[in-house]
Amino acid sequence: MLGLAMNTTQIDENSVGSQFRMTMRKFPATVTVVTASDDTRDHGMTVTAVTSVSMDPPSLMVCLNNRSRLHSMLLDQPRFAVNVLTASHPEVSDAFSGKVAPEERFTTGNWERDPAGMMILKSAHANVVCTRMAAVPYGTHTIFVGQVDRARVDEGTRPLLYSDACYHVSEPAADRKPSPVGKTEFDLYF
Questions:
Q1: Sorted alphabetically, which Gene3D superfamilies does this protein's record hold (predicted)?
Q2: Which of 62, 117, 147, 182 is the most buried (most CB within 10 A)?
Q3: Residue 48 and residue 122: Cα distance in Å, rounded?
Q4: Mean pLDDT throughout 86-113?
Q5: In whole angstroms, how far apart are CA 167 and each of 25, 29, 88, 97, 122?
Q6: Is the pLDDT score of 47 beyond 70?
Q7: How far apart are CA 179 and CA 161, in angstroms?
């Protein structure tokens, strides 16, 4: 018979959850600020869980913690914007990740109101305005699928990345310096 201890608070460093958390820390992600507006306020939050879904129709997904204010707004409001930050925007990311009060966040960066009503970062690497088509709860988060209404990219900038609790900037693999002879691991340069 298998003995189980009840009310145990020990943390197993080798548990799947711990291993997954450590893996995701090393998983580079593009840094975005997702914004939404309602009749009384604008809100935005730094989000790295954003990816494309389909080209037909053009769509992307954003994953948000169920306890976040932005989660509630996206359930109530049909439109949202994804602003992909550039290498010059770490302070914008920090402000929207909770280091600045929600009502003061839009004072960091050069924001303007989009015709659809959301705040858009003018100097972003890219802006994607979406209409929410689905909200799928899963665990502690909800996956919001947005159909793209409008998209713009600045070809002269590089997106801001986040990995292992640090900001990074990508460079094309063709620009990498050759690895020393005999080295077998693949190096990622940010």
A1: Electron Transport, Fmn-binding Protein, Chain A
A2: 62
A3: 19
A4: 96
A5: 12, 10, 10, 13, 21
A6: yes
A7: 23
Q: Which residues are CB-neighbours of 72 under 8 A, at least 6 positions away?
A: none
Domains of the chain with CATH codes = 28-175 (2.30.110.10)
Can you tell me which residue has the tokens 């930050």?
85
CA distance 135 to 137: 6
At 160, list the tokens. Answer: 């801001």
Residue whose structure tokens are 């976040």: 68
Tell me: the pLDDT tens digits for 4-21?
444 444 556 679 988 888
Tokens of 57: 């129709």
**H-helix segments, the chain:** 16-25, 69-76, 90-94
Q: Quickly count: other Cβ atoms within 10 Å of residue 153's Cβ.
A: 13
Q: Is the confidence at residue 48, as pLDDT, over 90?
A: yes
In one letter, which amino acid is 187? D
Predicted TM-score (pTM) of the model is 0.82
Q: What is the mean pLDDT of the chain?
A: 87
- State how far the Cα of 111 lies from the Cα of 123, in Å rounded to an integer: 8
Q: Whats the size of the chain, residue-wise?
A: 190
